[in-house]
Amino acid sequence: MAQLKCPICGGQVSVEDDALPGELVEHECGAQLEVFKKNETLSLRLAEEVGEDWGE
Amino acid sequence: MIVVKAGGRVIKQARDKVLESIGRLGEKVILVHGGGDQVTEVSKRMGVEPTFVTSPNGIRSRYTSMEELEVYVMVMGMLNKFMTAYLIKAGKRAFGMTGVDGPTLLAERKKKIVIIDERGKKRIIDGGYTGKVVQVRTESITSILEGVDVVVMSPIAVDKEEGLPLNVDGDQAAFSIASALKAESLVLLTDVEGVLMEGKVVSHLDVSQASELSSKIGPGMNRKLMMAAESVKAGVKRVTISSGLVNDPVAEAINGRGTVIE
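Output (structure tokens, whole complex):
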């Protein structure tokens, strides 16, 4: 497990080592975080709001 | 003016019945057609394996890559022209088009979507080439309808920002067109008899009943009900959800078969 920092509250967030970019993690502070890769290392950012609407 | 939406399964199982029924009408008609299953079939034949994704709410949907968008536009265009030709043979003046033409349907692309991936994790991915209709330019439809009896419309819109064709939901396209034109009637032909509650068809709903019921019924029909309520609010006189598999399905729907929302 990788230990990352929540960009919102600064608290610790555990993320699986094989997490993929785009994966969403709910933190205990209430923030929905998105895993992304920065210089080949996993990092977290606040996930943008994405609705659900699909084509035919 | 009547807007008719015939879903892909209805087109597959009862296309000629629907077209003959439209051929008998004395009013101007806009026919919006589906065709998702046919796109899947042709994709497979062409070696383009369709990709499906599951949303966090459990809704499984086609994922439209650029390669699939190309097949989608091709197959929808093919269905459109065969239906237009059938109507012309039946004595109607018919005009086949997509929402790109004009342009008529302008959409916004979903740049990102949330899926549940193969490992069961929630993940944000690129949204592919699906969109949501945000504007209907009615002048292209109304001017074409001055010269013809039926406009056959494929659910393809143009991306407002990027200018690319987009796969849009046929129901949403039909609701948007009917609302923008304040159509007298919107008929949604499906492969079921109407909105079912405890195994029975609900024959009539007002706008608030339709909105309320939409939260209690299954996916697919819930969206239809929600959009039906919105369309009536926007000026459509009557929305009917009815079977497209019966004889003369459009007349049956106009005469009150299925579920009427008004």
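Strands of chain A lie at 2-5, 12-15, 24-26, 32-38, 41-46.
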